[in-house]
Write a structure and sequence with these properties.
This protein has about 160 residues and is an all-alpha fold. It is built from seven helices and no strands. It has a single domain, classed as Up-down Bundle (AhpD-like). GO terms for molecular function: peroxiredoxin activity.
Length: about 160
């Protein structure tokens, strides 16, 4: 088993926070939850899965809605066009491998649904969660150390 590592602190950690603040102020909550849950599962970041399950529950999301967001490609009927675009963009940006990863059709559809500023705000949210996924994975943040969690938040057997 991997050993724990010191968590990022101080200025290094604080340098990442403006992106999160911007996201929380400019991307509607429902899309932030979709993006955070999906990217965290794709990256297998257990600390972030735990955190964002807790946050979505705190905002009234059911366990079923959370699990569907995490595995949205098997539950496409559960999401409207805008939610689907946000999830598709999350998948594309999270699995990025050159310019073909985010096809013009996907970006154009996102802009059509969210407007240019809204698409850029959504992108910042996707970038923010991917940054924190990588931070938590690298420093091996312990999901059990996250306050306010439940057994549901810590159960990864659905993946």
């Amino acid at each position: 088993m991997a050993h724990s590592r010191p968590q990022l602190r101080g200025e290094g950690f604080r340098s990442l926070l403006p992106m999160v603040k911007y996201s929380s102020q400019n991307t509607p909550e429902q899309y932030r939850h979709l993006v955070s849950l999906r990217a965290s599962v794709l990256n297998d970041c257990r600390a972030c899965i735990t955190t964002h399950r807790r946050d979505a529950r705190d905002d009234g999301w059911s366990h079923e809605r959370i699990l569907r967001a995490e595995d949205w490609t098997n539950h496409t009927d559960a999401f409207d066009d805008s939610e689907t675009a946000a999830l598709r963009l999350t998948d594309a940006v999270t699995h990025i491998d050159g310019e073909a990863s985010v096809p013009d059709e996907l970006w154009d559809r996102t802009v059509e649904l969210f407007g240019e500023d809204g698409a850029h705000n959504l992108l910042v949210s996707i970038l923010a969660i991917n940054t924190f996924n990588r931070l938590s994975i690298t420093t091996r943040t312990d999901p059990h150390s996250i306050k306010g969690t439940t057994d549901f938040d810590l159960d990864y057997s659905a993946h």
